[in-house]
Amino acid sequence: MLYTLTTQPIVYNFTQLNTEGLKVLKRTIFLSSLLISTSFSLGLDEIVKDALVENFEVQKLLKDIDIAQQSIELSTTWANPMVTFGVNDVHFDEPLRRDKEAMQTQYISLSQIVPINNKLGKKKVIFKEAKVISKFSLEDKKLYLSSKIKELGYSIIITNKKIELLKRYQVNTKELENIAYMLYESGQTKQTVPLNAKLLNSKLQIQMQNLEYKLKSLKIKLKELTYKDISSIEADLDKKSDFIADIELHPAIQALKTEVKKQLAVAKFKKAQEIPDVKVNLGYFQREGREDYLSASVNFALPVRGIESKEETIARYKALRSEDKLQTLKITFQSNLDLLKEKMQTSYSNYETLLHDMKGQKEYIGQNLALHAQLGHMNSIDLIQNINDTISLEMMAFDELNNYFVSYAKSLYFKGEL
Fold it and tell me: How far is it, in rounded angstroms, from Cα 403 to Cα 145?
């Protein structure tokens, strides 16, 4: 549960500048009840859902999958045949005469490369693996965007709560400042009391401005991912259960595993290229006054340079390199999960400790104010210091809560959860 301190400012009649004034101050300043409030998940998941549909990087990866599918369909298609039209033995003195000798022909020929050794089948496997990689890349991008949006969303929610808390404090510290000035003017306290109260208000105002700037910055970063101006976000701030993640199923891990398969498929394709494809040529030759004839031939490259063997070796080295990268990524993922889990546990433990300390601090302030009310005077140094300490504790508590949920949002990526 998220615990917050809520206050209800009281309008004070400043004609009462004696012990009654301190009693009102006791009721007014920081004696709020520790209430439990829970915000329910209404907006953050919807923001993520919409962003994953509209984000341009996601759209680009979807197109990559379509491109990969087209490549698969093209991979088994033979190369287009070549057709040639020509004449030979053209005499310069009589260029239009075509019956002077037997070698004078007009011809048409057709050439076609015929793939052998199942090269097209092996090539198709490469493009199939490329499509699988594109799909895993898409899922990985979705996980990253979801995690980042939730990280920003939780920070925005908690920053808003810090601003709301300071606003409530400002109402009460303004009241404190007014009472302090009235007590000083009536001779019931020293001049340092209103000055310290004013300084406290100035510090709160600076904190407020810094938080408002931080909030604007977070919303700008969120807009960069969602393409929307989002005024408010609601999400569940309950403590999350311990997580168990199987990193082997993460799309980034799966993509690298598939990359290894792809490079091995490339190696097989390069091996198959050691037996070259055959080019078949057919021609029809026409002669004036003589019998026409056909010609046929085949030609192919001689694999004497060892190019295909070297390319096969390169592909296998790339597969080994991808395997090394895969093992490194697994270690990185597991390390990040372990660190984030520790961070979550530590942050929430700190948060609960600060809640306990805040409760004791408020009780202490209340006891001091009650004592001051009985004695009829106001100790500025102790009171202002106690108020400062209380504000610091509450801000620290929110910082720890923010650390907890930011770590949680980051862990979602490594766990492979949207």
Answer: 19
Q: Tell me, what's the pLDDT at 28? A: 46
Per DSSP, the three-state class of 406 is helix
Among 153, 143, 150, residue whose Cα is nearest residue 245: 143
20 CB-contact burial (10 Å; exposed 0-12 / middle 13-18 / buried 19+) = middle
Ranges of residues in the chain whose predicted pLDDT is under 50: 1-18, 24-42
The whole model's pTM is what? 0.81
Helix (H) or strand (E) holding 112, with range, is: strand 106-114
Task: Round to whole Å and give the CA distance between 258 and 276.
Answer: 28
Q: Which two tokens stand for residue 245?
A: 């993640």
Quick check: 380 and 196 in contact, CB under 8 A?
A: yes
Report which of 193, 190, 191, 197 is spatially closest to residue 175, judged by C-alpha positions. Answer: 197
Domain boundaries, the chain: 2-78+123-189+220-271+305-415
User: Using CA atoms, how far apart are residues 3 and 394, in angstroms rounded to an integer?
Assistant: 10
Q: Which phi and psi angles does 105 have, rounded to 5°?
A: -140, 155
Alpha helices in 243-306 (DSSP H): 251-272
Angle at 112 between CA 109 and CA 117, to 5 degrees: 155
Check if the beta carbon of residue 243 is closer than 8 Å to that of residue 336.
no
CA distances in angstroms from 162 to 4, 208, 374, 399, listed in the order given: 10, 9, 34, 9
User: Hey, what CATH topology would domain 2-78+123-189+220-271+305-415 get?
Assistant: Outer membrane efflux proteins (OEP) (1.20.1600)
Which strands sit side by side in the sheet containing 278-286, from one edge to the other? 82-87, 106-114, 278-286, 293-299
CA distance 336 to 109: 65
Q: How far apart are CA 273 and CA 292, in angstroms?
A: 38
pLDDT at 41: 38
**Angle subtended at Cα 233 by Cα 231 and Cα 237, rounded to the nearest 5 degrees:** 155
Decide: helix, strand or coil at residue 387. helix
Residue 151 · residue 410 · CB < 8 Å: yes
Predicted confidence (pLDDT) per residue in 45-81, tens digit: 999 999 999 999 999 999 999 999 999 999 999 999 9
Asked if 243 and 57 touch (Cβ cutoff 8 Å), the reply is: no
Contact present, 114 and 82 (Cβ < 8 Å) = no
Mean per-residue pLDDT over the chain, rounded: 84
Beta strands, E only, 202-326: 278-286, 293-299
> Which stretches of 189-271 are assigned E, i.e. beta strand?
none
3-class DSSP assignment, residue 138: helix
